[in-house]
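Worked example (supplementary).
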Amino acid sequence: MAYTVGYFIGSLSQKSINRTLSKALIRLAPDSLAFEEIPIKDLPLYNHDLDADFPAEGRALKEAIERVDAVLFVTPEYNRDIPGSLKNAIDWASRPWGTNSFNRKPSAVIGASPGKIGTAVAQQNLRSILSFCNSPQMNAPEAYIQYVPGVFSDDGEVTDASTEEFLRHFMEEFGLFVERVLTVLPRER
Ligand code: FNR
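After joint prediction of all chains, the assembly is encoded as:
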């Protein structure tokens, strides 16, 4: 069975190391997974006054999440949390009340940073948000990637064998996790 994964890049930067990491993850993923990016950069700031007349950007975001079987978050850490742009996207997708697009949607989180703890704090906070949004999360393996220049080429080739093997294993486990969740939980809300 093939599954479609919608992936979020937490960074808006053109030179994002997390965007490069996402390319590596897609290269190394099992054939059972297909990928489409869920863009977040054009979303306005969330405001619940707009719930009654939800803007087109918010509707497009929710439809994109609802179209895919699972979601993957590839995110930097900003000041020990996820970037505001990613939190903003999650807030949009979770509303209007009663239409949370992450409900029962399997997810995984991963991130890269030049720092030694490789986005660990941001990922813990993201896990808390996803729990509240009732998204079943892959618990293990965890993946805190300390970015070392040269470890990825611009198009996501991994130059270090142990990093490549680790990321391949992460994606294989994610494929198995998605299959297990979707076998047990119905896709409809
Ligand atoms: C950072 N950076 C950072 N790194 C980290 O490991 N923990 C942190 O809390 C922060 N905080 C932080 C705040 C802000 C506003 C910026 C701009 C940066 C450094 C960050 O990991 C680095 O810039 C990465 O390159 C960001 O990821 P992308 O955008 O390249 O994917």
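Two points are worth noting when inspecting this output. Strands lie at 3-9, 33-37, 70-74, 107-113, 144-146. Residues 11, 13, 16-18, 76-80, 113-115 surround FNR (CB under 6 Å).
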